[in-house]
Design brief:
With 272 residues, this protein is of the alpha/beta class. It has 9 helices and 11 strands. The strands form 2 sheets. An 8-stranded parallel β-barrel has the order 1-2-3-4-7-9-10-11, surrounded by 5 helices. A 3-stranded antiparallel β-sheet has the order 6-5-8, with no helix packed on it.
Length: 272
């Protein structure tokens, strides 16, 4: 069964807005207790929920060589389940820093999440942490093994944090991602203008899945972004100015509320 992607992303009405809630990097912050992490997750998730953000993506940032560790899976699943229970109206997604097709889906299954994001889905890419091969086949097979074909897979295509190792135009890679099972696409260029160009090129090439812009979307350029894409992943532009890494509260309630007010004020998007 193919998931209804837009519904899985909380977009029953209006555009898709996914707020990314980044967890502390536990590879260098192992002193943090589960109590602190629970407070961190709930207080920041509340900022998004109270502003009316339709979907939250819980992002583990624990850097690991190889697949996610059992501790990463356990901690992220526990926090995801807690967020899901406390804020049931928000759709929940999962992403892990480790290059892993299985862990995000296993966490989503346990936490009751409705989507996952995979950074290298097709082809091969060189990242700051080394080379990565596409996760599409393994992810799709494991999702089916879990009998959770209702969990949508959002696939990044040539994300700006990596360099493709195959000489394939981005628009062609988008079509490969669709063919290999992506339910939605995340396109992020080196600049905001580049992101818009990538979305337009993907549509011109025949992409049919929902397309989201993965970075650099702000209140100021929101209308331009949602004129070409179905939605956006946002985080940095909503954070508290001057917040210390030690602070529990990282996202700003006023900024987030203004952003969502701007989303709701946009005219209905015309069908492509």
């Amino acid at each position: 069964m193919t998931p209804d992607t837009l519904e899985a992303l909380g977009a029953k009405h209006g555009p898709v807005v996914i707020a990314a809630l980044h967890l502390p990097d536990l590879s260098v912050r192992r002193e943090l207790s589960m109590g602190f992490l629970e407070d961190y997750a709930l207080r920041n998730a509340a900022v998004f929920a109270e502003a009316g953000v339709p979907a939250l993506m819980l992002q583990d940032q624990t850097r690991q060589v190889g697949p996610a560790s059992p501790a990463t899976v356990a901690v992220t699943a526990a926090l995801g389940r807690l967020i899901r229970r406390e804020f049931p109206a928000m759709a929940l997604g999962i992403i892990v820093q480790a290059h892993d097709a299985v862990a995000p889906l296993a966490i989503a299954h346990a936490a009751g999440a409705s989507f996952v994001r995979l950074k290298v889905f097709v082809g091969a890419a060189m990242t700051a942490e080394g080379p990565r091969n596409g996760l599409a086949v393994e992810a799709r097979s494991y999702r089916h093994e879990l009998r959770r074909d209702d969990v949508a897979i959002l696939a990044d295509v040539f994300d700006r944090t990596s360099r493709p190792l195959l000489d394939v135009p981005p628009a062609e890679a988008v079509l490969m991602a669709e063919k290999l099972g992506a339910d939605g696409l995340i396109l992020t260029g080196g600049s905001f203008a580049d992101s818009l160009d990538r979305v337009r090129a993907a549509r011109a090439a025949g992409a049919r899945r929902p397309v989201l812009i993965g970075g650099s979307v702000t209140e100021a350029n929101l209308a331009e972004a949602l004129a070409v894409a179905e939605g956006a992943v946002v985080s940095t532009s909503l954070m508290r100015p001057g917040a210390s890494p030690e602070d529990v509260l990282q996202w700003d309630a006023d900024r987030t509320r203004r952003f969502m007010d701007a989303v709701r004020a946009l005219p209905p998007r015309r069908a492509a």
